[in-house]
Amino acid sequence: MLSMGTRGSDVSRLQKQLKAAGFNPGGVDGVFGSKTKAAVLKYQRAKHLSADGVVGARTSQKLFGSSSSKYFDGKSDFAPAGPGPVTTGNGSSPAKVQKFINTAVAQTGKPYVFGAEGPRAFDCSGLIHYALKQAGVADSRTTAAGYQARFAGSRVSRSQLKPGDLLFIHYPNTRGIPAGKASHIEIYLGNGRSMGTDNPREGARAEPVDWSHVVNASRVPGLYR
């Protein structure tokens, strides 16, 4: 169950789904605040559900096609980043890693266009390719699943994540990408946040990691050479 005050990737997922359905929660920030509640209420009324502003079994069944509690544990699994640039900030990362992060974050607000690889617009893997190239890692452009396969030999667990690592994410899709394979890719920034782009209405941006859809993660060896 999700309600006012809940924080975490469950809420981020809810906010994304509400946006996709045409009900604006005011942003994807992982915080169930008044704007998210208002969007839930509008959705419930539109779908002839009991309008209480709480995402329980019936509302989640309508919105996600599932009422499974695995999506909504109500636990916070990220620490919101503080104000200022969303980078490692402490100078402890290798220069290439920092350049990779800084380049990606500098694209904030640029539009999402499927297949685009910059510098005016990006899709998720295009942003990765562009930022890696700027950081001195020249490699061929591929898809999210392609990067997942390319860096399969340098996977890291969630507890081992460092800023600059790649997060491989699977969302239900119409492109035939099966569960376990990445349909989306983002850059881990630290503090439970990531940088990426997958929505034409938002463009490139940093946001809380949607841990419920992360398949695995990898480190880019070329950033450490």
List keywords for this structure.
2 domains; 225 residues; 6-stranded antiparallel beta sheet; alpha+beta; Muramoyl-pentapeptide Carboxypeptidase, domain 1
Report on the structure:
This protein is 28% helix and 12% strand. With 225 residues, the protein is of the alpha+beta class. It folds into two domains: 9-71, Muramoyl-pentapeptide Carboxypeptidase, domain 1; 95-224, endopeptidase domain like (from Nostoc punctiforme) (endopeptidase fold (from Nostoc punctiforme)), CATH 3.90.1720. The protein has a six-stranded antiparallel sheet with strand order 1-6-2-3-4-5, covered by helices on one side.
User: How many strand units?
Assistant: 6
CATH class of the largest domain: Alpha Beta
Identify the CATH homologous superfamily of the largest domain: endopeptidase domain like (from Nostoc punctiforme)
The percentage helix is 25-40%
Mean pLDDT: 84
> Domains counted in the coordinates: how many?
2
Query: CATH topology of the largest domain, anyone?
Result: endopeptidase fold (from Nostoc punctiforme)
Q: Quickly give the structural class.
A: alpha+beta
CATH architecture of the largest domain: Alpha-Beta Complex
Q: Please identify the oligomeric state.
A: single chain
The N- to C-terminal Cα distance equals 46 Å
General form? elongated
Q: Point out poorly predicted stretches.
A: 66-90
How many helices in DSSP terms?
6
Question: Can you summarize the main beta sheet?
Answer: 6 strands, antiparallel
Our estimate of the beta-strand percent is 5-15%
